[in-house]
Amino acid sequence: MRLPPLYAILDASNFADAGGMLRTAEELLAGGCSLMQYRNKSGKAREMLDEARELKGLAGRAGMPAPHRVRLIMNDRADLCVAAEFDGLHLGQDDLSPEAARRIIGPDRWLGISTHNLEQIAEADKADADYLAIGPVFATASKASPDPVVGLEGVRRARKLTRKPLVAIGGITRTTARSVIDAGADSVAVISDLLPDPRKSTEEFFAVLR
Ligand code: 3NM
Fold this sequence. Notes:
eight-stranded parallel barrel; binds ligand 3NM; single chain; 8 strands; 18% strand; alpha/beta; TIM Barrel
């Protein structure tokens, strides 16, 4: 698999309602974003499934042919990933094990794992995961109790420990994205710096990432 250089994360906590999130998703798609994660740390399963299905409908209507089609990743919840027919699942260190998640999502969906230090990278590298994430690269206000910042040096070291596609996350902006890719990441995952004007921000990310 090959990751696009921009991985947008839609965190439900940033939106007053599902409509706000969907409008942002539409703008991200219009800006050319082809990989989006739905993250909802406090929602009820039923609401999450409804929102995820709406996202799925939007992404389908974006109508890009493979291999450029939009891919949707569910955070944490293997059950909702399958129920909403998402393309992949992203697991944190405290979520299901990759093996358990794989049994639920099947062999074909993408499986990503968050890591926060070199031991976790080495461990996740051995797991049945399609990509690994390392972070937080920089300070972030978007995550409760973030792990210590790993910096660009952490990305460089992670790159040396795995051949799996590597996503960098945490405090990454249009100003720093290029340096993160140059440190060895294949993709940058972003929440806040896409929010002010999602279409324009997406285009500006691509302008520095291409
Ligand atoms: N995971 P922003 S940092 C969701 O370190 C998340 O694994 C992280 O948001 C990790 O782009 C983070 O606003 C927050 O900093 C990313």
